Every structure is written in structure tokens, then in C-alpha cells.
Amino acid sequence: MNDLLPWLIVAGLIWLVWKIYGGDKKSSTSGVVQPVVSSPPQTRLQTQTPPIVNSPPKQDPQTRHIQKALSFAKTQHRELEKKQREHAAWERNYGLAQVHELDKLGGVEFEKYLAGLFRKQGFKVELTPCTGDYGAAPLLIKDGKRIAVQAKRYAGSVSIAGVQEALSGMAYYHCEAAWVVTTGTFTPNAVELAEKSSVRLIGR
Q: Which side of the chain, N or C, has fewer Cβ within a 10 Å radius?
């Protein structure tokens, strides 16, 4: 019995080795096809890429502010140069004129003289058409107030008609006041109407 025990142990070891190697090999080559489970196909999201638009680069707010300030300064500079040229032309033509020299001016020249004179006093001046001015030439603007001026280059006296023309120009051009400016004087009737209608008279 003792002689059979070693043989039984050897036989058990052989069977165990066969079971491990032979059994696995047999099961792998037994012809049974194992099903292949594949993962479901992934669906691609069809996203439409928007077209690329070459938009201009955004300006920095500070840069945009500086550009606007420079543009404003250039505009103001051009306006100032224009006013300086107009003032220089007025000085050359009328700046040194005395009252007796104004008597030599025509009606349009006298209006231009007054325009330059009032600009020097800080008024904004608008010249009306030479004909059909509806009783105002030029128009003055200062501190938001509009003034209709009737210019009369007279050697004699301005009658009541001159005051009436100034009132007509004030109404037509939506002004707050009316003046009559002349190289001459005013008749008593003109003075009376001007006082009652608050028209300012500026004589010789």
C-alpha cells in the first residue's frame, strides 16, 4: 500500500497538469464561436459651422474718443480760419472807415460793413438775400436771441417805413427783436413807432 501512494500522487499531478493546459486548449479549440459584441456606432453631431466673416477689428473706446476729439478740433480750426479770413477782409475794406466814408458805400456794401462790425461784437451774422429780404438784412444771433436788422445807408432821415420793414423782418424770420441801423437820422414818426413797438434805432 505504501508503494502505491507515490504513484497515486504522480498520477494526480499528471491529471492536474493535463486539466490546466489540455482542458483550456481544448475549450479554446472546441469550435464554439463566441459572439462578438460590438459597441453601437456613435452618431456624429451634424453641426453646421457658420461662415467666417472678416469683420473690421473693434476699436478701443479710448482710441475712438481721441479720433472724435481730433476731428472736432480740425473742424473748429477750419471754422476759426474762415472767420479770421472774413474778419481780415472786413478790416481791409471797412475797418478804418469813418462815418463820412460810409456815405460812399452802396446798400449791399453797407450791409457787409454792418455784418463785420457786429461779428467783432460777438454776434453770429446771417446775411439775407440782397433782394426780397423781407425787411431784414442782416440777421444777428447772440445768446440764443435772434435779431432782425434793417440796414439803411441814408444821407437823410429814415421814415416810419423803415421801422415797419424791421418789424416785418422780425415776424418773417421768427426773431425776438428788431433794429434799424442807418448812416442818417430818423423822422419823429419813425421814433414814435419804434418806441411803441420796442424797435431799437441806431443812427449816425
A: N
Contacts of residue 112, Cβ cutoff 8 Å, sequence gap at least 6:
90, 93, 94, 127
How much is the pTM? 0.51
Spell out the residues 6+ positions from residue 127 whose beta carbon is closer than 8 angstroms to its own.
111, 112, 115, 137, 138, 139
pLDDT, tens digit, 9 for 90 and up, residues 44-94: 545 556 566 566 667 677 787 788 888 888 888 888 888 778 767 766 666
Domains of the chain: 80-202 (3.40.1350.10)
Write the pLDDT tens digit of every residue in 147-163.
Answer: 998 888 887 888 999 99
Spatial distance between the Cα atoms of 184 and 163, rounded to a whole number of angstroms: 14
